[in-house]
Amino acid sequence: MVDINRPWVVDTPELSGRFPIYTRGNTGEVAGRVSTPLSWSSIGGWPAEIQWRKALVEFGAFDEDEFRPDEMDITALIHGYIYMNLSIARVFGVRMPGASAELMDRAYLGESAGVKPYVAEPGDDAPQYTERIMATVQRVLGARSRPDLEEDARRAAELRAARPDFAAMSDRELLAHHHKIMTGHYGGVLRKHLLMVYESTLVTGMLQEVIAELSDPTLEVRLMGGWGGVASAAPTIGLWRLSRTVRGSGTLTAEFEAGDMAGLDGRLRALSDPDARAFVADFDAFLFEYGSRSTDEWEALPATWETHPHIALGLVDRMRLQSDERSPESLAPRVREEREELTRRLRERLADRPELLGKLDTALQAMAVWMPARELSKTTTIRVLQEARLPFRELGRRHVERGLLESIDDIGLLDIDELGTLIDDPEAVLPLIPERKKWKAELEALEPPFVVDGAVPPVTQWAKRSAPAASPGRSGDVLTGLGACPGAATGRARVIHDPADAIGLEPGEILVAPVTDPGWTPLFASALGVVVNVGSPLSHAAIVSRELGIPAVLAVEQATKRIADGTLITVDGTAGTVTIH
């Protein structure tokens, strides 16, 4: 019997007293499961906290000494689940000219209730930060390009090209390679990405300020898409092109239609057919470029497309069923053209309001820079991270081969220090793994509280994930969420909980998914529309759906439970609604 009442192996020992409110808002989008000891100790705990603090200080909103020197403040791990500090976000909003604590609540919590209103604490409203923040504002709004990000991307590509032969390295050399990447490459790109998360909110904040004057809430989603050059949309286009190769080849089509995605990669590589050889060459080039993408992107041992190619081939399989006119490259211009026409009309409307017109032009000019930049930054960060975590997978493979572990993933149940012990004295740490595996499974059967205010509710009081959802939707019901990409689509709902299990998604259907990780977004191209449980205007799913021109509504609470599989629904990405027929 596992005692799950105690803190998880790498839980945060003590939550902040100065900043006591934490939320799963935002983190629930990209970290839905319990964080493994290896992930938190090597990637997500102190390694991320250090860079996050630097980003906030560089932005100008905090000083380093406002945070505890020996405890994490910005994020916390509570019974294995990652939480963001809402109190710090509120102070950020108070110090940011034109923002507020309430605005940050809406960004992190959406329409969710259950958190007490903001109450000012001494030091929250600190005028000395205004000058620093305004310098950042001027820098962000004045930027016309981000060549530094292109340089970071180039270096990440070089790092991938120079990957050593892990199979030829000793166990200790593998661990040393991980540390080399984390200390020499990863920290800098992560800090820049975290800083960009805050900087991009300045751009959307200015746009929202203009929209508030125009009394049309649909303007935001209609003005935010179609900028082109978004790095996170590129994998979908690459997969689509692979799907066209399959669609045009009888040999490849037969292999895909045979099913067994897990064995498809091996079957294709065994064929001497020219079509198969050409496809494998193109697929290998795709994996070289985009193989780091996955769901659970911040984990130490995620199922990436590179390590689990059957997932990427499954995405190709769904895309091959689509007709050529569903090409992402042909759908995307619709969003751009609609935005450009809307912008033209707004400029005419504001011709006699030069101040507001100037703000609109400034916001849109900044949007053209920062939307692609933000996604390029994230793509680069994950590509570098892949080079740091692949040594873990090789270590796991070896210990499975030696008969010490049941699966490669078991190595994630040890923290980074215990991993070193595993190399030198396996018997000292191997007994820890079976209990932790059961412990993790029991925690993942629970729904963590959305907000924690000071005291953590006993884990025995947490709801079961299998508990009944809110009342299922009935014909005529309209579910509300956040419009992510303008446009409307009507089709049968296909509820999918894992992109690896998307074999049932058929042309003309609406994808209903739980989260917004990059591992999901290529499925968007196989769907007529998209509905997601969580999300925000700057979430990965929102940005990619706009670039692909797929009508999407995010932050539809418990959509995967409220919308029954096969239900006829209409997705209105402009209004942010889902109508059940």
UniProtKB/TrEMBL annotation:
<dbReference type="Pfam" id="PF00391">
    <property type="entry name" value="PEP-utilizers"/>
</dbReference>
<protein>
    <submittedName>
        <fullName>Phosphoenolpyruvate-utilizing protein</fullName>
    </submittedName>
</protein>
<dbReference type="GO" id="GO:0016772">
    <property type="term" value="F:transferase activity, transferring phosphorus-containing groups"/>
</dbReference>
<dbReference type="InterPro" id="IPR036637">
    <property type="entry name" value="Phosphohistidine_dom_sf"/>
</dbReference>
<dbReference type="InterPro" id="IPR051549">
    <property type="entry name" value="PEP_Utilizing_Enz"/>
</dbReference>
<dbReference type="InterPro" id="IPR008279">
    <property type="entry name" value="PEP-util_enz_mobile_dom"/>
</dbReference>
<feature type="domain" description="PEP-utilising enzyme mobile">
    <location>
        <begin position="506"/>
        <end position="576"/>
    </location>
</feature>
